[in-house]
Amino acid sequence: MVGRVTPQWDALVQVSLEAADGRTELAYAAVDTGFTEFLSLPPALIARLGLPFAGLEDLTLADGSEAVLHVFDAVVHWHGRRTPVHALEAEGTPLIGMKLLRASRLTVDVVAGGRVEVRPLAHA
After folding, report:
1. 2-120 has which fold?
2. Residue ranges of the domains in the chain?
3. What residues pair up with 26 in beta bridges, in sequence order?
4. DSSP of 73-90, one letter per residue?
5. From CA 65, how far away is CA 21, in angstroms rounded?
6. C-alpha closest to that of 100 among 5, 17, 10
7. Burial level of 11, CB count in 10 A (0-12/13-18/19+)?
8. Residue 4 to residue 11: CA distance in whole angstroms
9. pLDDT in tens, 78-110
10. Contacting residues for 19 by C-beta, under 8 A, at least 6 apart
11. Is the CB of residue 1 less than 8 Å from the CB of residue 119?
């Protein structure tokens, strides 16, 4: 999976998400190594995909504040596999977190337009 660094310094890659009805939708997501969960998605994308509600999760945000977020069952096509994950509902750009990146090699050329590459580890 290959993407680019934006002029705003987001490391974006395109992910394939599966809707509840089986169709797929592509979305750009920012790689966020400070985000320990699988994935965050904005409410409009969750609604468009028809993702089922899975519950609530208490989280500590990057600024140290506490939040309760809605969690949805999602499926992402990751490293050639259909991978069920929990997606947190959050405004803004979708985020890829460390749980989804597990067993991957992440390489980022940190310049505007730089290459972002996420590959599965051969030994994982």
Report:
1. Cathepsin D, subunit A; domain 1 (2.40.70)
2. 2-120
3. 16
4. EEEEEETTEEEEEEEEE-
5. 36
6. 17
7. buried
8. 6
9. 999 999 999 999 999 999 999 999 999 999 999
10. 25, 48, 49, 50, 51
11. yes
pLDDT tens digit string along 23-81? Answer: 999 999 999 999 999 999 999 999 999 999 999 999 888 888 999 999 999 999 999 99
Residue 33: alpha-carbon gap to chain centroid: 11
Gap between the Cα atoms of 66 and 97, Å rounded: 18
Instruction: Compute the radius of gyration of the chain from its Cα atoms.
Output: 14
Alpha-helical runs (H) found in the chain: 43-49, 98-101
What separation in angstroms does the CA of 65 have from each of 51, 62, 116? 27, 7, 30
Which residue bears the tokens 């790689």?
Answer: 31
Interatomic CA distance for residues 113 and 116, integer angstroms: 9
d(CA 18, CA 50): 10
HEC string for 48-62: HHCCCEEEEEEEECC
